[in-house]
Amino acid sequence: MYQPIKERCEALVKNFKEIPAERKELLEKIAAYISGKAAINEAINLVYVCTHNSRRSHLGQVWAAVAAAYYNISNVHTFSGGTEATAFNPNAIKAITAAGFTVKKTTETTNPVYEVYFAEDEFTTCFSKVYNHKINPAQNFAAIMTCSDAEDNCPFIPGCDLRIGTTYNDPKAFDTTILQDEKYTERSNQIAMECLYVFSKVVNN
Prior knowledge:
The chain contains six helices and seven strands. It is an alpha/beta fold. The strands form two sheets. It has a four-stranded parallel sheet. The relative contact order is 0.22.
């Protein structure tokens, strides 16, 4: 794992006390799902869902992959999707680049495909898509709703074993303001810390 990302993880895990108790209850349901899959040696598929699949859902996909690697939980596959496709937002990309990720654009379109590396040979592929896109699992997965719009507009997601809402405030509200970079980093760190908390509970089960 790249050293800046490892150091950020080490700092965040020291602050689990900042996560409210009711929030931990939700996150522990995801941990229980992961533990159950791991116990029977099944693939652990996590799909992070937000309306436009441009910011929070990609941050979930990226940081969940990192958290699994940090805690050495194998056979974890992370994905993201939306109720509509747009593009991976440049401000979200800037936030993860600042955190130490290497982001490589592999296509030149209005909705580019990116490889987001957190180690020399470990990456997750990010681009905006609907949640039931062919690249995402059609069954045997947990659907983790990262925004209230998707939570409200997707009351049913076919094929999922678990559907759970862990919604986050949208950093988009601060686009083009003086607080833009700060708020994207804040949201990235919150999602990172909660993903790390989830996988820490898998290790401790």
